[in-house]
Amino acid sequence: MKKRNAVLLMAMLALPVLAQASCESVKADISKKIINNGVAEADFTLDIVPNDQADQAGGQVVGHCENDTQKIVYKKNGHDADSSVPDSAGSSQDSSAQ
Question: What InterPro entries would the database entry show (predicted)?
Answer without folding.
Answer: DUF1161 (IPR010595)
